[in-house]
Amino acid sequence: MRIATIFHLGTKELRGLMRDPILIGLIVYAFSVAVYAQTRAMPDALNKAPIALVDEDNSPLSRRIGDAFLKPYFQPPEIITADEMDKRMDAGIDTFALDIPPSFQSDLLAGKNPVIQLNVDATRMTQAFSGSGYVQTIIAEEVAGFAADSGVGTAPTVDLALRARFNAGLNQTWFAAVMAVINNVTMLSIILAGTALIREREHGTVEHLLVMPVTPAEIMLAKVWSMGLVVFIATWLSLVIMVQHVLQVPIEGSLALFMAGAALHLLATTAMGIALATLAGSMPQFGLLLMLVLLPLQMLSGSTTPRDSMPEVIQMIMLAAPNTHFVTMAQAILYRSAGFSVVWPQFLWLAVIATILFSLSLASFRRSLR
Known about the structure:
By secondary structure, the chain is mainly α. It folds into two domains: 3-41 and 168-369, no CATH class; 51-150, abc type-2 transporter like fold. It contains 15 helices and four strands.
């Protein structure tokens, strides 16, 4: 193989990509707007949930409970009457409606067990599921604090001192931003490498290349380095500009070490994209194959849910996927500031998987040419 040939074929791929505004727009969108949107719309994060309060007691305790619902989890409680509660819920104005009954504080001070009614609009599933727990916890803490201040109850003898490492504020934005970039690295590298091959097949330029003094390995390497370079640069820019500066997410570890791991991962995923393109006869077929491959890769790699919560069989199978090790490595470096001495097993796994995928893809590419 000749390095100059691979270089010139790769620059040809880059020129072809620059003439495709749809792919350019997809790259820009995936590493900017999509990262921002996914970060601001975490499905399990409670953010500015509308809540109404029917305060039939109008006591210091009821006002204390109302003042405890703070941003960013809840909007300031809207004080309404009992007659308005059902109408507002039917109109979809409030997700939560809290009804504090009369004599609530006096019943509590008398040693009784008063009940507060919480109405939830369950059609807003994500807010209803997590928000109900938030409301119960807030009310329990405020009632316990009021009872302890009033001498009604005794303070707990054991207190839980929470020390959250690596994310002291338990801010889900930090997790979502980095995972969005990581998922887009896998998606874009497979798409760009596959479309580069299919585009040449549809334009008939593959046959032109074959009559020239180039080998299938040179053609494939040119596509791998050129498309991988595009995603590599976009990933770095997204982490520096979008994640660190726009979203204000701190990167704890070495960005250079992470990018070195990303380069190995890109070698594996671009080879995977070429393998899928050799199986697909056209761009629509390639799109269908992407749906079958990308969804399991992203859902089962640990970027969405922890791998420990998955069945052991799935965990073992996903060890063969490159993004499983890439996600583990990225989380260790970017969140926990791990060095190479910690993540070298993931680097080794990525190198082995990339070598195997590249060899299989090259063999499949040669068969497709024949």
